[in-house]
Specification:
GO terms for molecular function: manganese ion binding; metalloaminopeptidase activity. Keywords: Aminopeptidase, Hydrolase, Manganese, Protease. This is Cytochrome c oxidase subunit II. Belongs to the peptidase M17 family. This protein is an alpha/beta fold and 461 residues long. It is 33% helix and 20% strand. It folds into 2 domains: 102 residues, Leucine Aminopeptidase, subunit E, domain 1; 318 residues, Aminopeptidase (3-Layer(aba) Sandwich), CATH 3.40.630.10. It contains 15 helices and 19 strands. Strand 2 and strand 3 form a beta hairpin. The model has no long low-confidence stretch (mean pLDDT 96).
Length: 461
């Protein structure tokens, strides 16, 4: 979905953004007609409040949008976007009320609020458009919104239409758009090419597992993105209850997020050598499903005891991370809807991430605030390494006890990169459970904008 802000100079209705403390002052500076209209309306400037001001002929002369207080704005990532459903159709131009540091964020929120998933029914709603504010890079904001829309579309599509083959098709479409190279290893060829754990997890499905490998760029640092592409997760033989299986179409959210991030990088022409690796599988139940107590040998040669077939994401990521590390990238990132423990720890809104690099953490945290894309650093806690060592094999895919589940999963993945690799792992949710301004219920991009914004610092571009 292509998105764009209206260009500067477009005829537009003035949009006055007023905090609760600004309403009386602004109204006092207007004509008697407008002041009386504002006072009679009861407009108080709360977030999401809208007041259209008509001219003498009943046409929109201006619009007021509530911006709340600093305290209430901290609760709404895109406060301006809360007004969109109530604004009359048309094009608007912001007339003050938003400080320069937040203009890009609010313009992005406006675009994100225009998203509509209408693949299965005609439910499109015409949203008002916004003239690009001064000092906002319209092209950059549009790219950020396009990336989010791509990610949302992929996650929102049910598994019946978004299996491994369809995920490959989406990756090929993105590669074609940006003239990137792409190769795919499918089915039994995974074994011949030494991706045994990707094959083991996906072999029970009649939708063949595959490894998608996309590359772009000829100069600059090497950046490798690895995204979990479990297109549906039954849990395998350790089958999930129905209540836990209901949202498993989003278990390829890591893949959707790295494709969104890849779009940002390529569309912006960032001077890097980008590689995107997606192990795409369905974790199904069949006679040839991998089993509890099986021991798998990974691409890296490490053996893994399977103590829960529902801890499959880390298995497919392990083989892909090993491949990525073989290319000695300057930065390697994994993104995955990996553990319920992460949701218990930080809820659905924060994207927890792991890194041993304090420079990475500082840069990511600053970018997260700037990009309205909240993240939270979690520890690679070395003393927990013993929890993923079962004794019978090198690693345990599902340590007993239930403690520190997100941390032990991250430690498991770290075993498949080298000590010299600059590695970041995101344990995302990939889903917005309750609609919020600029963030409709459904698939969500998490952590990718923050990472994109931090790349120039991390890679000295």
């Amino acid at each position: 979905m292509t998105v764009a802000l209206a260009p500067a100079g477009t005829d537009a209705v003035p949009l006055h953004v007023l905090g609760t403390e600004d309403v009386a002052l602004w109204a006092g500076q207007q004509s008697d007609r407008i002041r009386t209209w504002v006072e009679a309306s009861g407009f108080k400037g709360g977030i999401g409040a809208v007041l259209m001001i008509p001219d003498a002929n009943g046409h929109p002369e201006a619009a007021l949008v509530g911006y709340g207080t600093p305290a209430t704005r901290r609760r709404d990532r895109f406060a301006l976007a809360a007004a969109l459903p109530k604004l009359a159709k048309g094009t608007y131009r912001i007339e003050g009320g938003i400080d320069e540091d937040h203009l890009e964020q609010e313009a992005l929120g406006w675009l994100l609020a225009c998203y509509n998933f209408d693949r299965y029914r005609e439910n499109s709603v015409e949203r008002p458009s916004l003239v690009v504010p001064d000092r906002v890079d319209a092209a950059r904001v549009s790219v950020l919104a396009e990336a989010e829309f791509l990610t949302r579309d992929l996650i929102n599509t049910p598994a019946s239409d978004m299996g491994p083959e369809e995920l490959e098709t989406a990756a090929r479409a993105l590669a074609d758009k940006h003239k990137a190279k792409i190769t795919v290893i499918t089915g039994e060829a995974l074994l011949k090419n030494n991706f045994p754990m990707i094959h083991a997890v996906g072999r029970a499905s009649d939708r063949a597992p595959r490894l998608i490998d996309m590359s772009w760029g000829k100069r600059g640092p090497k950046v490798t993105l690895v995204g979990k592409g479990v297109c549906f997760d039954t849990g395998g033989l350790n089958i999930k209850p129905g209540s836990s299986m209901g949202l498993m179409k989003k278990d390829m959210g890591g893949a959707a997020n790295v494709l969104g991030l890849a779009h940002m990088i390529m569309a912006s022409g960032l001077e890097v050598r980008l590689r995107v690796l997606i192990p795409a599988v369905e974790n199904s139940v069949s006679g040839n499903s991998f089993r509890p107590q099986d021991i798998l040998t990974s691409r890296k040669g490490l053996t893994v005891e399977i103590n829960n077939t529902d801890a499959e994401g880390r298995l497919v990521l392990a083989d892909a991370l090993t491949l990525g590390a073989e290319d000695t990238p300057d930065l390697i990132v994994s993104m995955a809807t990996l553990t319920g423990a992460a949701r218990v720890a930080v809820g659905p809104d924060l994207a927890p991430y792991y890194t041993d690099d304090d420079v990475v953490a500082t840069s990511l945290d600053l970018s997260a605030r700037r990009m309205a894309d909240p993240v939270w650093r979690m520890p690679f806690h070395d003393p927990y390494e013993t929890m993923i060592e079962p004794g019978i094999a090198d690693l345990d895919n599902a340590p007993k006890g239930g403690f520190a589940g997100s941390i032990t999963a991250a430690l498991f993945l770290r075993r498949f990169v080298t000590e010299d690799d600059r590695y970041i792992h995101f344990d995302i949710y990939g889903w917005q459970p309750t609609a919020a301004p600029g963030r409709p219920k459904g698939g969500a991009l998490q952590g990718a904008r923050a990472l994109f914004d931090s790349l120039p610092v991390l890679l000295d571009l």
